[in-house]
Write a structure and sequence with these properties.
By secondary structure, the protein is an alpha+beta fold. It contains 5 helices and 11 strands.
Length: 173
């Protein structure tokens, strides 16, 4: 399926690469997050080991991600030093790249091709996880929901790079 035109596409070329900092999956709804060093992403489904892989194939919420910078901003608003990524229930934590500029863009983490489909708004469980004011602190800083367009493996430390339309590193493609 062809990617729809987005007026911000031309600026996405200017995004410097970020880095994958953390990977987490939940084996069941409401289960604790399990931190991983590497994960296999299944195209159109989700991450192996995550309960969402069996829910709504093709949905725009196959993987969720947040930036280390957004986590820091949320901690600042709560008046605390830091927040453990597992409390936020996002699958991926990245750093060094503007997540809002990734919205509606295709990007790669390791072998995996993703497309950011929507903002990932905080839910009421953030009040439980972060305490009073948790939802308010995360507003605008909840991260992104993504589709997996091309499966593969991602490893903590992999680069996060925008996939510029029409450009390919495939020498034979």
């Amino acid at each position: 399926m062809a990617k729809r035109p987005n007026p911000l596409d031309r600026f996405a070329r200017d995004l410097r690469p970020g880095q994958l900092q953390w990977i987490g999956v939940r084996p069941a709804r409401r289960a604790s997050m399990q931190a991983l060093q590497r994960a296999r992403a299944v195209s159109g489904r989700g991450l192996e080991g995550d309960h969402r892989i069996d829910k709504s194939p093709g949905s725009g919420r196959q993987v969720t991600l947040i930036s280390r910078e957004f986590i820091g901003q949320t901690a600042h608003f709560l008046g605390i030093d830091e927040i453990s990524p597992d409390l936020l229930r996002r699958n991926l934590v990245v750093s060094g790249i503007n997540l809002h500029a990734l919205r509606h863009q295709r990007f790669r983490i390791g072998d995996v091709l993703l497309e950011a489909s929507a903002l990932c708004h905080p839910c009421s469980r953030m009040q439980e996880a972060l305490g009073e004011g948790g939802v308010a602190a995360m507003l605008g800083h909840g991260g992104l929901c993504c589709r997996i367009l091309g499966g593969g493996v991602m490893v903590v430390g992999d680069a996060v790079r925008v996939e510029v339309p029409g450009e390919s590193l495939d020498l034979f493609g």
